[in-house]
Amino acid sequence: xxxxxxxxLLPLQGVGNARDLGxxxxxxxxxxxxxxxxxSDSTSNFTAADIRLMQNKNLGLVxxxxxxxxxxxxxxxxxxxxxxxxxxxxxxxxxNSGRSSETLPPSMGAVYIHLLDSAKESFARVFRAFADTIExxxxxxxxxxxxxxxxxxxxxxxxxxxxxDDDLIIADYAATYDFMKPVFxxxxxxxxAMGYDxxxxxxxxxxxxxxxxxxxxxxxxxxxxxxxxECGILDNEIKMIVDSFVI
Length: 247
Prior knowledge:
By secondary structure, the protein is an alpha/beta fold. It is 47% helix and 10% strand.
């Protein structure tokens, strides 16, 4: 099935990859609810109009998945904003940690697999914050730098919890390259200027990356629900997320 991912883009001026994860078909003739979970690239460039739009969408939580260095260079506009909880849950940031291209895995799928195995405490913080916020009737936005890797893995877990088909999860992930190609081109040029020899796959969101990740998730943990159990998320927290997200 072909999915119109572009129709989920939010009309924001300061970002290029902000999307509503609602209105997707999931198992049992259900759909995901609009206005509950939003995925995005960095919120550091949100304009005043962007902030108002998200406030009008009842935003209660912003989860920033970037590293300390990233947040120092480009702070989120939602830091210390009245009425919105801001959580910086730091996840993988290999390039900004100075990791050389010789030590990088052969695919981004391998990076996401490592993230699943190594960042369980971080994912627990993220999904517990989701449950806490949804309980108050507010919506949640999560993002990293370009909304591809850390954000893509988080979106995968959310959509799998909602029992979306794998082809939808893969399409949602792969669309990032279409929306962010100009940014990726600039990033590649910047890394080269700093002396990094970055392989092209680092700047792409090829479907094969998420296919590889989903196979690993199934074979190792079963599904997102069982994975989050291993992270320490409780059944009632998962039920709260699913009940609010699936209609």
